[in-house]
Amino acid sequence: MIDSQAAEKISRMKKLRRTLSESFSRIALKKEDTSFDEICVTKMSTRNCQGMDSVIKPLDTIPEDKKVRVQRTQSSFDPFEKPTNQVKRVHSENNACINFKTSSAGKESPKVRRHSSPSSPTSPKFGKADSYEKLEKLGEGSYATVYKGKSKVNGKLVALKVIRLQEEEGTPFTAIREASLLKGLKHANIVLLHDIIHTKETLTLVFEYVHTDLCQYMDKHPGGLHPENVKLFLFQLLRGLSYIHQRYILHRDLKPQNLLISDTGELKLADFGLARAKSVPSHTYSNEVVTLWYRPPDVLLGSTEYSTCLDMWGVGCIFVEMIQGVAAFPGMKDIQDQLERIFLILGTPNEDTWPGVHSLPHFKPERFTQYSPKNLRQAWNKLSYVNHAEDLASKLLQCFPKSRLSAQAALSHEYFSDLPPRLWELTDMSSIFTVPNVRLQPETGESMRLFGKNNSYGKGVSNSKH
Fold first, then answer.
1. Tell me, what CATH number does 325's domain have?
2. By CB atoms within 10 Å of each CB, which of 234, 254, 284, 369 scores lowest?
3. Domain annotation covers residue 320
């Protein structure tokens, strides 16, 4: 019985992928310009989306007695790596039922971010492959290559994420998911998707060009960042997350490499290939998400029932790394080693500190050393040099998921109390740097003047590896 059900699901998944691939190929050959949403919604609406609510609901509001747990899938996620067959099976029905409407408002997502084509029929147009010039390769993976490019329409720099399509496999679901989600998100702290180009061989996502990311920025300035810059980066990260969380979208892969930094200091959430719209808990998520160092303990222990708190653990890890200059929990071996590093500082959980921990698939008390919780400054001394930093970090780095601070609540923490009040009044598309006197400070590296001469800020700190 189980085998027949699994075979039926696999068959439905294969048919869906063929349908999507065929639809993209037909659309690419048409002369008229058809939007990405029209392609996906038309085809996906013909599928049988059993078990999906038309309106996506917050996960935390579902009664406990209706929650369903599924088996954990084994896979390794990389934004450039092709999803494994097992992951495809788990997500096939969920992806077929992606709702392209903004769930929180019940309104249709914004239209495709295309610009009016020039009047001349021979002029470069948006949506065409020859409208962009490739300048240099920025990165390459097994199924996608990213180039720095230039638009022939308006002369602006862009980033071209070229996804290679295989006839027998069709369009990767991660590409469909990333494009569909990003086209509905308009925020200063979320990377902007300009255009989508589909040909028989490739699917190209055209993004605004941002010259570096937080990982490279920290590598360039080892030993911890200027405390004022940490505050502005963290504020922007929380601002972007609050925006997507209010729309019931989880990023699921927060790490420094996925946080782009512009030349003005603007931080932008990027790489939504693993992002998911939250649905009813019967559609649980793979727990093989988020790079190991930034993966929360509940996911490491096999939980597949999580909400926005998943992203908030990553925020806490990134916050500590920006201040301290090294990764918060740099596991070097495996999941067991990663959990040991977390428990060493936060304490080994039990039913009193984490209700329900014993029911998680991979929690075996005898496998873990029993540690008592420590003050975070004992592990990361630089937290004590910045007002309210340790308190904020401690409220983000909570083993029990429901105890973690939300993005919206974190924005109101005392840590940000010295920032201009106007920052909380900005519209979604307004940069924080439009507020007077808000700007990045020069990074001083190992300079002692930030915290006085009698502290050890920056001494003996090695550069972090990601």
1. 1.10.510.10
2. 369
3. yes
